[in-house]
């Protein structure tokens, strides 16, 4: 059994020698054969991520064109857009899929990754997951590809993500259907705490989160397999 203990504090003293010595002494006094994977390390500083918005007018959108040798050849300033709109406060993420519900049919329990691909990563303290159906192997079967995309877009919802990722049960989840790209985009807010530098997860950048989601079992219609 592997037990990992991570302690965070604004000051180094509470998580320094006073903490590690007691933890090691307590463990050594327990069951025979206990061992640690590495000596207790000294406290190290960590960063806290706070997302914020900056007025568009305060940022110059600049395109830097490089020459063949990597040196800067040209710098072009992109003008501010003439028209802007206010964000919809997640209305797109909350809306249901435009596809109709599938009819009752025989299903099989298989990993989501049977034909769904994934890529994931960190956006500050939020985890971002892209799920999509690959077109490879279905160039001569566009109907099956379209059916798989329809199924995926219907399947993935905030509540479903909370089932597939139990640690997101109490977190805000946004799901953006992208049917023209054959998939969906998922944002799990706060899964990484206060950002990568402050995250205590084994996978602080959520790079393996997509594969974890792909390994989860779901019910899939036989016709899609």
TrEMBL record:
Ranges where the Acyclic terpene utilisation N-terminal domain occurs: 2-64
Every AtuA-like ferredoxin-fold domain range: 110-217
Name by which UniProt lists this protein: Uncharacterized protein
Superkingdom in the source lineage: Bacteria
């Amino acid at each position: 059994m592997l037990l990992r203990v991570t302690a965070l504090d604004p000051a180094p003293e509470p998580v320094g020698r006073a903490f590690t010595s007691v933890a090691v002494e307590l463990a050594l006094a327990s069951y025979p054969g206990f061992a640690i994977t590495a000596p207790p390390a000294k406290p190290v500083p960590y960063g806290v991520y706070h997302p914020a918005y900056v007025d568009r007018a305060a940022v110059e959108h600049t395109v830097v064109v490089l020459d063949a040798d990597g040196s800067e050849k040209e710098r072009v300033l992109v003008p501010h857009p003439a028209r802007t709109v206010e964000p919809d406060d997640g209305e797109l993420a909350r809306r249901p899929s435009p596809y109709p519900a599938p009819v009752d049919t025989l299903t099989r329990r298989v990993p989501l990754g049977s034909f769904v691909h994934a890529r994931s990563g960190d956006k500050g303290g939020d985890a971002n997951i892209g799920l999509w159906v690959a077109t490879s192997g279905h160039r001569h079967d566009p109907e099956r590809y379209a059916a798989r995309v329809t199924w995926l877009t219907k399947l993935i919802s905030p509540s479903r993500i909370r089932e597939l990722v139990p640690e997101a049960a109490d977190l805000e989840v946004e799901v953006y259907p992208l049917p023209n790209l054959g998939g969906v985009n998922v944002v799990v807010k706060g899964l990484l705490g206060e950002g990568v530098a402050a995250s205590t997860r084994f996978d602080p950048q959520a790079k393996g989160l997509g594969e974890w989601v792909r390994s989860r079992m779901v019910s899939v219609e036989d016709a899609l397999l």
